[in-house]
Amino acid sequence: MSLKKVAILGSTGSIGISTLKIIERFPKKFIVTALSAHNNVSLLEKQIKKFNPKYVALQKEKISDLRKRIGTCRVKIFDSGSEIASLVNRKDIDIVILGIQGRAALEPFLEATRCGKVIAPANKEALVMAGDIIMKEARKHKATVIPVDSEQSAIFQCLEGRDKSELKKVYLTASGGSLKNINQARFDKMTVNQILSHPRWSMGKKITVDSATLMNKGLEVIEAMRLFDLPAEKIEVIIHPESIIHSMVEFTDGAIIAQLGVTDMRIPIQYAMTYPKRMETGLAPLDFVKQKFLTFQRPDFKKFPSLKLCYDVARKSGSLPSVLNAANEEVVDAFLKKEIKFSQMYKIVQKVVRRHKTIKNPNLRMILESDRWAREQTRKEISK
Ligand code: MG
Hints:
Layout: E1 4-9, H1 14-25, E2 30-36, H2 41-51, E3 55-58, H3 63-70, E4 76-79, H4 84-88, E5 95-98, H5 106-114, E6 118-121, H6 125-140, E7 144-145, H7 150-159, E8 167-174, H8 192-195, H9 205-213, H10 215-228, E9 235-239, E10 245-251, E11 256-260, H11 266-274, H12 288-291, H13 305-316, H14 320-336, H15 342-355, H16 364-383
Parallel strand pairs: 1-2, 1-5, 2-3, 3-4, 5-6, 6-7, 8-9
Antiparallel strand pairs: 8-10, 10-11
The structure holds magnesium ion.
């Protein structure tokens, strides 16, 4: 394997930090060409000094602070708000790790597909919004999309080399989130910090709230539909609290292939970077005997109505997933700022989704317009 040049978008988040750990272990295989962060200047400064990227991107307001901190370091600085596409399309980037959360990933994702790069998306929002367009562009420009989201990576690995016409269904596993064992009547009494303490995975705030509502799993249903070109009916969510099986696929003959492993994002990230090869990760192996049990439950759609809502949206598709995603990003933000209660998140998202007139086969402009409309509607509901 020749030296691969890597761009990490969202380098100061949990995916970015894990990616840099992998690169540190394999200095002869990977080199960091570009880093982008939202506003964590002090960590970005450390990363620049350690990894010496050619390019970095950061929120406009923070750029002068960064310049002062890095002094004579020779690095070209981009505004992460308006110039991220011109960073992604550089010739000296082979792999783009998409570790940024939310809608902000859409533009760099599309640009990377148009440049035919290897793209490793940990972000699901962009695929939920415009997955059909992204995957079409990827095919057209021979870009390779290798998912990093652990469930999608598992499905990707289980489907490798198989004839998809023989696929019966996909089991998308879910840990159940931080509220799995909490009575629904107590949801609104939980503090933001309690919601943010996920039993199995350590992740960013938005995705941890989404795990608590099971919205994360619902978004993953739509993400899987786009990545693997599947109808919603072929995707079944199953609660698996141990999070050892990262997802599985069932074929027409009843054979099921699962991907298992310890809960560490370095495995799917590294696989996306070394694909189709594998390399050791240095992680402790899974101990089956110590693990003892792998358990499963059906999801409770009454307790977690967001999951049901996602299935409804997935079946209708068109512009509706972009509305669902936009409304959800806004309510999660409001919940984290303590502007609304936990249960209001679902109620508001449902209201906005119902209000939307779905456009079939929307183009990118229509998707962005639906996104803008949904955010405006959602913010109105939040301030009520
Ligand atoms: Mg996931």
